[in-house]
Amino acid sequence: MIKRLVSYLKPYQKRVWIACVALLVATQAKMMIPVIVAHFIDDHLRPRDVSVKVIWLYGIAVLLIQLIAVVMQYIHLVSFQSIAQWAVKQLRIDVFGKVQYLSQSFFDRTPIGTLVSRVTNDTENVNSLYVYVLSTYITGIITVITVYISLFMLDVQLATWTLALLPIIFIVIYWYRKLTANLYRISRSKLSEMNSKLNESIQGMNIIQALRQEKRFRKAFTTANNEHYHSTMINIKLAGLMLRPAMQLLCIFAIVIALNYFGFTSLSTSVKIGEVFGFINLLERIFEPIYKMMIQLSQVQNAVASAERVFDLLDQTNHSPQQLGHEQPNIKSGRIQFDNVTFSYDDKNTVLKDVSFAIEPGQTVALVGHTGSGKSSVINLLMRFYSPNQGAITIDSQPLVQFDERELRNKMGLVMQDPFLFTGDIYSNIRYHDDIITDQQVLEAAQLVQATPFINKMPHQFHELVGERGTSFSKGQRQLISFARTIAKNPKILILDEATASVDTETEESIQVALEKMRAGRTTIVIAHRLSTVQDADVILVLHRGEIVERGNHQELLKQQGLYHKMYCLQNHATLHHAT
Predict the structure, then answer these.
(1) Taking the CA of residue 526 as centre, how many other CA atoms within 13 Å lie in the half-sphere pointing to its CB?
(2) Distance from CA of residue 476 to its chain's centroid?
(3) Based on the domain organization, do 120 and 181 belong to the same domain?
């Protein structure tokens, strides 16, 4: 994982080296000040060999070195922060881009809140990882090295003795990291779970309140929140025990060793006061960066857990079905054929069993059946959202898997039962960033689906703003706009998945008139529960438990006295009863 994180820094290697050099100069400059002060005390102050020239010389030297340290520190801090922001910016782009090409089955089993948490919260934590590693850890390591260089400049023997502290410090860091690593994974997992529950509850708030499920959702959220709280509190307690107290104890221990060393040395020979001051001062500077490193270690552990989750998403291999082969077939006539197609979403429960049918160019074929019979699964396979487990699907006698994604999406128009609008305006939702579609085509598409009358009544007409998911429009209006968006592409194959279920009867009749004009030269597949909307279809396929049990036109199926006849009678009886 660290190797992959470092790979995002490769484009900025030059800036990294500049920052490291600036850090090295800044740290060494700051470490030189105690050494200079020590020499001033021992060489001038103690023997009383002080003059104005000497005072000015040492004062200017200290100020100059401090100025260099400040400038270099600014360069390295800004450089490290900039590098971290650039790297995480690219990581976010990669994660979001990866999500765009994952299969529908991945989204079927992954909560939306979890994905949002990975793309936003987790990548932001990775940014913290870069900042802490680049800034705090590199700074700490270089500081410790430069401090020891300065210590050896003052007293080689004592500096050698203090090296024994480093293994103890590393042991403390190792155990702290080991004890907190899993706790942070739990913490991040529970935070993601809370995001998921929050997203689900907000989206379904009307259902929650209607069914009075507020207490149950609050209880589920509270459970995840408590688990997150407990894992965080354990981390806080470990930090309180092993961070500053442990480092302060080691620091005092080091100072005691130094004082004892100088004390016993003074019994046999003279000891320089400046050297004592410089040594004690530098010893304290060793532990400050190490303490900061250990404080940030908790944040690094948190960020590492987030990085693991981000890379787990990047490593997903469950992509949308891709084109096989290098051929570039085109959809010309729009002939569709399913040949013994079997499909399961989870490889356990089969939703389509040996389904075979052919749709000739220009035909309108309706798929009807009870809920769960497999109608939408047929559409999902035809749109290549999923791949069949067995069998083959062809368009114009060419295997579906050989078509380029762009060709499929340009020549196949899909209108779903639940319309989805994007933030923008009506015009942008119909055109939807397709430069090939002209302004005139947008107007013609809206007029064809009978959307122009209600659009022209809007204050800004086609430039009327559309909020998130188009909630400011009625469901019927949203459906008409999404219908126009599909028609504007002038598709060769038109797929309507309960497309008229959200509009009133008068509007539906208008759309049916428009559909009559659109069907000329196009292959049309209609999924419908209301059989009255598909009576004029050329062929009606009746599905039951994943199998085609009946096929024919409306009159032929009524004569068979089968499932279609039963459904038709039930719907007509319900309609007559409602009218009565």
Answers:
(1) 26
(2) 32
(3) yes
Q: Could you please report the per-residue DSSP string of 94-126?
A: HHHHHHHTB-HHHHHHS-HHHHHHIIIIIHHHH
299 and 225 both lie in a single domain:
yes
- Domain count of the fold of the chain: 2
- 142: containing domain: 2-97+110-314
How do residues 357-366 score in pLDDT, each as one tens digit? 998 888 889 8
Same structural domain, 261 and 309: yes
Q: How far is CA 363 from CA 359, 427, 518, in A?
A: 6, 31, 12
- In this structure, what is the dihedral angle of CA atoms 481, 482, 487, 490, given to the nearest 10 degrees? 130
pTM of the model: 0.61
448 & 534 share domain: yes
Per-residue tokens: 448: 């064809």
CATH number at 359 reads 3.40.50.300
Q: Residue 217's Cα: distance from chain center in Å?
A: 25
Which of 433, 156, 105, 130 has the alpha carbon at shortest distance from 299?
Answer: 130
- The SS3 call for residue 193 is helix
Range with lowest mean pLDDT among 126-130, 214-218, 368-372, 515-519: 515-519
Query: How does residue 342 score in pLDDT terms, banded at 50, 70 and 90?
Result: very high
